[in-house]
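Hi Y.,

Following your request, here is the sequence exactly as I used it, all 150 residues.
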Amino acid sequence: MSLVALMISPTGSVSEEFLPGRDHLADVRALLGGSVDGAGYRRGTRMWTLGEAGAHGPNVLATALASAWRGQDLAAAYWLRGPVLLTGADSEDRPVVLQQQVYDDVRALQVVLDQVLRPRKGSGPRSDGDAWRQILVGAFAAVPAAGGSA
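Below is the corresponding structure, written out as tokens. Let me know if you'd prefer a different format.
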């Protein structure tokens, strides 16, 4: 069974990626390009990152999304780094179709990031910290906390 995943790049761009479905974990590794870690920030969804993503820059969109789903500022403890892949997962962590709400949440946060970061070229937030706080406020308003893992 072929499934669609969403890839969030550190630049904030989002693309649909197809998982052939023969070996889900191998498909995820191939798309991200190495060993991977998966976490459940939202029921029915798995967020995958590179196991050695520390060498990559922060993924602001993915960190804001995970923070909104958990209802807390994850960046206070850690940033998601590098490319992040979103896949659907059932209660036993088997791959399933990605829920429409995930697409809606990602689109809503793209708008939030655009609204906060676009003005930075002139009169936007004074610092990265101010920008992150504004992103979090927008994320918490735009995306309902979804709780827990798959």
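The CA atoms of residues 64 and 150 lie 19 Å apart.

Thanks again,
Q.
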